[in-house]
């Protein structure tokens, strides 16, 4: 229950996992690996933010959207492994940032999720990562996150 207590310290209650917006599953577990599909910044079945970072949203709002996506990724992960204390390591995080053309601070936006994972899992939450600017995301989400996690066997 170490992770649960860290979540509580941070004031985070994991929501129900997001329902897929298309034909896919939120997570796939293969051996000790869990692949988490792209998670967006929805809270209570609606988007907290919509639009392009750098045009419609500030860097800080993009950061918060990434943090929310990270929380949703953890909810999806927990739904398949049952207990987040089983996480051995967050291996890879890919963050897609719906951004305006001149915006180049994609890494700082995706830090919203990466810093959350580091606070929860320590060094084992600091993953290999990509932060990519894109022209659009589903339902005009500002951020979409996916990750690969190794769990303890």
Produce the secondary structure layout.
Blueprint (H helix, E strand, L loop, with lengths): L1 H8 L17 E4 L2 E7 L2 E2 L2 E2 L11 H23 L5 E12 L7 H16 L6 E7 L8 E9 L2
Parallel strand pairs: 5-6
Antiparallel strand pairs: 1-2, 2-7, 3-4, 5-7
What does this structure look like?
By secondary structure, the chain is an alpha+beta fold. It has a single domain, classed as RutC-like (60s Ribosomal Protein L30, Chain: A, 2-Layer Sandwich), CATH 3.30.1330. The protein is built from three helices and seven strands, in the order αββββαβαββ. The protein has helices at residues 2-9, 59-81, 106-121, and strands at 27-30, 33-39, 42-43, 46-47, 87-98, 128-134, 143-151. The strands form two sheets. Strands 1-2-7-5-6 form a five-stranded mixed sheet. α2 (59-81) crosses α3. It is globular and about 45 Å long. The mean pLDDT is 96.
N-end to C-end Cα span: 17 Å
Question: What kind of sheet is the major sheet?
Answer: 5 strands, mixed
CATH topology: 60s Ribosomal Protein L30, Chain: A
Structural class assignment: alpha+beta
* Arithmetic mean of pLDDT: 96
User: For this structure, what is the CATH class?
Assistant: Alpha Beta
The tally of domains stands at 1
CATH superfamily annotation: RutC-like
Name given to the CATH architecture: 2-Layer Sandwich
Percent of residues in β-strands: 25-35%
- The beta-strand count equals 7
Instruction: State the low-pLDDT regions, or none.
Output: none
Give, in spatial order, the strands making up the sheet with the most strands: 1-2-7-5-6
**Secondary structure: helix percent:** 25-40%
Enumerate how many helices there are, as a single number. Answer: 3
